[in-house]
Specification:
α2 packs antiparallel against α3. About 45% of the residues lie in helices and about 15% in strands. It is of the alpha+beta class and about 210 residues long. It has 2 domains: about 50 residues; about 140 residues, Nucleoside diphosphate kinase-like domain (Alpha-Beta Plaits). The strands form 2 sheets. A 4-stranded antiparallel sheet has the order 4-5-3-6, with helices on both faces. A two-stranded antiparallel ribbon has the order 1-2.
């Protein structure tokens, strides 16, 4: 019986039924009203906690954390950095560190260690060392997922319109931007490109985050 009430598809029906009876006050005694309110409170608490699904490693989608972005040489050469920064800030994410870097082959091998053995890796090295890279640390609620949603699919051919890659690229050879794929990866990557003193803390608009 309890499993029926806790099933997500049935919760909304139950809430609607109780909401109807709340409006029919003549049908409820004082005690019925009290217990009905308690029941709805339990249902609300369950739904609220269900919404706080853990994204990973004990972190919930409502927690504040940091992620790394690398804006690649082709993005800088095309002059579309401003659009990307604008999208980040409009999402109420906070830029807490930013600097130009030169990606060496050694740094590429460290950063892309998981694909360094692939035959296409030299092409990646050539791409990432073709010009300056703009590195950023972004802070915000569930920032890893939020930034990856802004970027779109790794292969721009599958990136949705409205995303950075979906709007500005059509080939994986020039996919514009890198963003950390997990909180754990973000911590490692931020430490790779920034020292602690380069990551700032400041107060943003009180109406966001």
């Amino acid at each position: 019986m309890l499993s029926f009430f806790m099933q997500e598809n049935n919760i909304f029906i139950i809430v609607l039924v109780f909401a109807y009876f709340f409006n029919e006050k003549s049908l409820l005694s004082r005690y019925e009203t009290i217990y009905s309110q308690r029941f709805l409170s339990i249902i609300y608490s369950y739904m609220h906690n269900t919404g706080k699904k853990e994204s990973e490693a004990g972190k919930t989608q409502f927690e504040m954390h940091k992620t790394l972005i690398l804006i690649k040489p082709d993005t800088i050469a095309r002059g579309i950095v401003g659009d990307i920064l604008s999208r980040i800030e409009k999402k109420s994410l906070k830029i807490v560190a930013m600097k130009f870097i030169d990606m060496t082959e050694e740094l590429c091998r460290e950063h892309y260690a998981h694909i360094a053995h692939q035959p296409f890796f030299p092409k990646i090295v050539s791409y990432m060392t073709d010009g300056p890279v703009l590195a950023l640390v972004i802070e915000g609620i569930d920032s890893v997922r939020q930034v990856r949603n802004l970027c779109g699919a790794t292969d721009p051919q599958f990136a949705a319109p409205g995303t950075i890659r979906g709007d500005h690229s059509c080939t994986i050879d020039y996919n514009l931007i890198h963003s950390s794929d997990s909180i754990a990866s973000a911590d490692i990557e931020i430490a790779r490109f920034f020292i602690t003193e380069e990551v700032f803390q400041y107060t943003k608009n009180v109406y966001v985050n």
